[in-house]
Amino acid sequence: MRTSIPCPSCEEALTIEHFEDFSTPFTMKCPHCRAKLKETKMTPLLLLIAVIAIPLLVYLGIAVQSFLAGYFPIIEKVPTIFVFLAFCYPIYALYEAFNAVVIFNKGNLQLKKRQ
Length: 115
Description:
By secondary structure, the protein is α+β, with helices and mostly antiparallel strands. It has one domain (4-111). It is 53% helix and 13% strand. The chain contains four helices and five strands; from the N terminus they run E-E-H-E-E-H-H-H-E. Helix 2 packs antiparallel against helix 4. The chain is elongated, with a radius of gyration of 18 Å. The chain crosses the membrane at residues 45-69, 81-104.
Protein backbone atom coordinates (compact mmCIF):
# COMPACT_ATOMS: atom_id res chain seq x y z
CA MET A 1 0.00 0.00 0.00
CA ARG A 2 1.39 3.37 -0.95
CA THR A 3 1.91 6.11 1.61
CA SER A 4 1.58 9.15 -0.64
CA ILE A 5 0.82 10.23 -4.17
CA PRO A 6 2.15 13.32 -5.94
CA CYS A 7 -0.05 16.32 -6.64
CA PRO A 8 -0.50 16.65 -10.43
CA SER A 9 0.30 20.37 -10.18
CA CYS A 10 3.15 20.85 -7.68
CA GLU A 11 4.35 17.23 -7.26
CA GLU A 12 4.20 17.55 -3.45
CA ALA A 13 3.13 14.43 -1.57
CA LEU A 14 -0.54 13.96 -0.72
CA THR A 15 -1.15 11.47 2.09
CA ILE A 16 -4.24 9.58 3.21
CA GLU A 17 -4.72 12.22 5.93
CA HIS A 18 -5.12 14.89 3.25
CA PHE A 19 -7.82 12.81 1.56
CA GLU A 20 -9.64 12.34 4.87
CA ASP A 21 -9.66 16.13 5.34
CA PHE A 22 -11.37 16.79 1.98
CA SER A 23 -15.05 17.47 2.62
CA THR A 24 -16.19 15.60 -0.52
CA PRO A 25 -14.57 13.94 -3.53
CA PHE A 26 -15.79 16.93 -5.56
CA THR A 27 -14.04 19.72 -3.62
CA MET A 28 -10.46 18.55 -3.38
CA LYS A 29 -7.65 21.12 -3.25
CA CYS A 30 -3.96 20.44 -2.89
CA PRO A 31 -2.97 21.63 0.62
CA HIS A 32 0.39 22.79 -0.75
CA CYS A 33 -0.42 24.72 -3.95
CA ARG A 34 -4.24 25.03 -3.56
CA ALA A 35 -4.78 23.62 -7.08
CA LYS A 36 -8.26 22.19 -7.59
CA LEU A 37 -8.14 18.44 -8.11
CA LYS A 38 -10.68 15.99 -9.47
CA GLU A 39 -10.86 12.24 -9.23
CA THR A 40 -12.08 10.50 -12.38
CA LYS A 41 -11.88 6.77 -11.76
CA MET A 42 -13.66 5.98 -8.48
CA THR A 43 -16.19 8.82 -8.12
CA PRO A 44 -19.04 6.94 -9.88
CA LEU A 45 -18.55 3.97 -7.53
CA LEU A 46 -18.50 6.26 -4.49
CA LEU A 47 -21.72 7.92 -5.67
CA LEU A 48 -23.37 4.51 -5.97
CA ILE A 49 -22.19 3.59 -2.48
CA ALA A 50 -23.52 6.93 -1.18
CA VAL A 51 -26.94 6.27 -2.73
CA ILE A 52 -27.04 3.02 -0.75
CA ALA A 53 -25.33 4.21 2.46
CA ILE A 54 -27.22 7.46 3.07
CA PRO A 55 -30.68 5.86 3.39
CA LEU A 56 -29.18 3.17 5.63
CA LEU A 57 -27.61 5.82 7.86
CA VAL A 58 -30.94 7.71 8.02
CA TYR A 59 -32.73 4.48 8.94
CA LEU A 60 -30.09 3.76 11.59
CA GLY A 61 -30.58 7.21 13.13
CA ILE A 62 -34.35 6.70 13.27
CA ALA A 63 -33.95 3.19 14.71
CA VAL A 64 -31.58 4.41 17.42
CA GLN A 65 -33.96 7.25 18.26
CA SER A 66 -36.90 4.82 18.52
CA PHE A 67 -34.88 2.45 20.69
CA LEU A 68 -33.75 5.20 23.03
CA ALA A 69 -37.27 6.68 23.21
CA GLY A 70 -38.40 3.47 24.90
CA TYR A 71 -36.02 4.19 27.79
CA PHE A 72 -35.93 8.01 27.69
CA PRO A 73 -39.25 9.43 26.41
CA ILE A 74 -37.74 12.91 26.00
CA ILE A 75 -35.71 11.57 23.04
CA GLU A 76 -38.89 11.56 20.90
CA LYS A 77 -38.85 15.36 20.91
CA VAL A 78 -35.16 15.65 19.93
CA PRO A 79 -34.49 16.06 16.18
CA THR A 80 -33.17 12.86 14.61
CA ILE A 81 -30.01 14.55 13.33
CA PHE A 82 -28.90 15.28 16.91
CA VAL A 83 -29.52 11.68 17.94
CA PHE A 84 -27.57 10.51 14.89
CA LEU A 85 -24.64 12.81 15.63
CA ALA A 86 -24.57 11.77 19.27
CA PHE A 87 -24.81 8.01 18.81
CA CYS A 88 -24.08 7.06 15.18
CA TYR A 89 -21.35 9.50 14.13
CA PRO A 90 -18.55 6.89 14.46
CA ILE A 91 -20.25 4.81 11.75
CA TYR A 92 -20.45 7.87 9.50
CA ALA A 93 -16.77 8.62 10.21
CA LEU A 94 -15.87 5.08 9.14
CA TYR A 95 -17.84 5.59 5.92
CA GLU A 96 -15.91 8.81 5.19
CA ALA A 97 -12.58 7.12 5.99
CA PHE A 98 -13.52 4.31 3.59
CA ASN A 99 -14.17 6.90 0.86
CA ALA A 100 -10.76 8.47 1.48
CA VAL A 101 -8.99 5.10 1.33
CA VAL A 102 -10.75 4.16 -1.92
CA ILE A 103 -9.88 7.46 -3.60
CA PHE A 104 -6.31 7.33 -2.31
CA ASN A 105 -5.58 3.74 -3.34
CA LYS A 106 -7.65 3.35 -6.52
CA GLY A 107 -8.33 6.90 -7.67
CA ASN A 108 -6.90 8.84 -10.59
CA LEU A 109 -6.17 12.46 -9.63
CA GLN A 110 -6.18 15.15 -12.29
CA LEU A 111 -6.19 18.93 -12.32
CA LYS A 112 -9.62 20.47 -12.63
CA LYS A 113 -9.87 22.56 -15.77
CA ARG A 114 -10.79 26.21 -15.31
CA GLN A 115 -14.04 27.25 -16.94
